[in-house]
Amino acid sequence: MNKWLKSILTLIVLMFGMFVGGTTSFAADKPHYTIATDTTYPPFEFQDKDGEYRGIDMDMLKAISKEEGFTYTLKPMSFNAGVQAIQAGQVDGLLAGMSITPEREKSFDFSVPYYKTGVVIAVNGKDKDNKSLDDLKGKKVAVKTGTAGAQYAQSIAKEYDLKLSFFNDSNTMYNDVKVGNTVAAFEDQPVMAYAINQGTDMNIITKPVNTGGYGFGVKKGANAELLKSFDKGYDKLVKSGEYDKIVQNYLGDNSYNYKKNAANEAAAKPTIWNILKENKSALLDGLFKTIQLTLIGIILASIWGMLLAVMGVMPSKIMRGISTSIIYLFRGLPMLVLAFFIYIGLPNLTGSKIPAFTAGVITLVLNEGAYIASFVKGGFLSVDKGQLEAARSLGMPYGKAMRKVVMPQGIRLTIPSFINQFIITLKDTSILSAIGIIELTQTGTLIIARNLQGFRVWLIIGAMYLIVITLLTWLSNWMEKRIK
């Protein structure tokens, strides 16, 4: 049993080493850090049409690393996941437009504040009834999980009887307001103003409150050298005037126009064809990563699932009990919870980092493997018991009788189920975007953060999934006919 488990773990490590790509190379004599960022937060961080990370934070980090002589790898993920990744030691720092607050200072060491901001409230551009905070009393509002806007909304929720809806990215939050599920969004001033100037049909109805500064954060008591380098580099940028140039590049003179202009409104509504042309490379990369995760996941999950299925039909009650317990556990756990436990929970316990891709593969193996084990076990049990007994009566050992008689028939009966599980695994890879894997769904999120064209982009992403799933369904039907 131990040998089997070691083999499975070895296969996972080997497959990860073979397939994971995009590793940033860096000089051995330079300090290297992993920096988490929320790349759905323009104008501070977003991904451009060429797949490059841009924004005030990204350009500033690039300039500081050059000044201070260190290299870094960016880990895009939701803000909330980034905060947890810092605490788990999975990343060295978080640069994501993070407001410095007394509560966060209990868990983070911050750089000097590099940008002053405040929280504003914005409503649908067609909303003529809600013109102030007082008008929102007793109504449902939208906030982004873990942000200063969410903290401010929570602090006044009781006073104004606000009902809060939480979202992981700004674009989804804005769209929730625009379709009328919520009446207002709490957002940082420059982010909201930038979105409006890009064509988002919303109006800011309050002045900035809870003004404070953004800071670069590291885990409290850790990475002091990185924090020191950031502060020194930032000071050099300010003195040289380069920091002002970076801000000017994205925000102009900072005198925000809170009303859309015609040019921006037209530019904010590209056609589906133009979105495809501009983001072809990113979409294909996302699709490749999705297929890569699916293939590795389903292969290893099939091995693990068949091992559990064999254990589940063994004469030994202990082996059957172990198999049943493992299947019950991993079928019962939501996949998102399992992914966070592996990526963030285990490093907290062990002190060792787990790459996001590896965590994603392990999540797929454990989750999908449990489902595969269930139907493969059912296939084995559907083979008439008399065949196993006949094989044993001819002198075959139990293991050989299973391999030669029961398993071939049982697996043959479950081939259509394997194809269906392949399709399910393909769709389940979208959940892994929560831990920073840039597969097809996360690619769509990054594109929307830049162009704010949620409907069109999700239509494209949905069509891509549907095409691949249709091809797999045809394959399933063809194989099912062949084995009848």
UniProtKB/TrEMBL annotation:
Positions of the ABC transmembrane type-1 domain: 287-476
Localization of this protein:
Cell membrane
What CDD domains does this protein's entry cite? Answer: TM_PBP2
Q: Which residues cross the membrane?
A: 293-314, 326-344, 356-376, 431-449, 455-475
Q: What is its main location?
A: membrane
Which cellular component, as a GO term, is one annotated location? ATP-binding cassette (ABC) transporter complex
List, alphabetically, the InterPro entries matched. AA_ABC_transptr_permease_3TM, ArtM/GltK/GlnP/TcyL/YhdX-like, Iontro_rcpt_C, MetI-like, MetI-like_sf, Solute-binding_3/MltF_N
Gene Ontology molecular function:
ligand-gated monoatomic ion channel activity
Query: What is one process in the GO biological process aspect for this record?
Result: amino acid transport
Q: Which PROSITE patterns match?
A: ABC_TM1
Q: Which UniProt keywords apply?
A: Cell membrane, Membrane, Transmembrane, Transmembrane helix, Transport
Q: Does the keyword Cytoplasm apply?
A: no
Q: Name one Pfam family in it.
A: BPD_transp_1
Q: Which domain of life is it from?
A: Bacteria
Q: What membrane topology does the UniProt entry give?
A: Multi-pass membrane protein
| Protein family membership | Belongs to the binding-protein-dependent transport system permease family.
Q: By what name is this protein known? A: Glutamine ABC transporter, substrate binding and permease protein
Q: Which organism is it from?
A: Weissella minor
